[in-house]
Amino acid sequence: MATTDIRFKRMDKEYLSLRQTQGEVFDKVDTFEAALLGLTEMVAENREMLQAIIKHLDVPYKPPAGFVKE
């Protein structure tokens, strides 16, 4: 048929478009994951520094019950 080549080209372009879009989404997720990991490390680092300051200044500090490790 005369339209067979056109249909195959359309399917090929749709497939490539889908793959390109998926690639962009995966790149964004990787970027967000890296940012989240960086923030998590910074929070842990800040927590350690605050605990060291509290200990150094001998501040009577009792964390809220929700944050106590069992």
What overall form do the CA principal axes indicate?
rod-shaped
Please report the distance between the alpha carbons of the first and last residues. Answer: 72 Å
Supply Rg: 26 Å
- The total beta strand count reads 0
Give the number of helices: 1
Low-confidence stretches: none
Spell the H/E element sequence.
H
Q: Report on the biggest sheet.
A: none
Q: Could you say which structural class the secondary elements and strand pairing correspond to?
A: mainly alpha
Helix content: over 70%
Portion in beta strands: under 5%
Q: What's the helix and strand layout?
A:
Layout: H1 4-56
Give structural notes.
The chain is mostly helical and 70 residues long. It contains one helix and no strands. It has one helix at residues 4-56. The longest helix has 53 residues, at 4-56. It is rod-shaped. The model has no long low-confidence stretch (mean pLDDT 88).
Descriptive terms for the model:
single chain; 70 residues; mainly alpha; 1 helix; rod-shaped
Compact summary:
The chain is 76% helix and 0% strand. It is an all-alpha fold and 70 residues long.
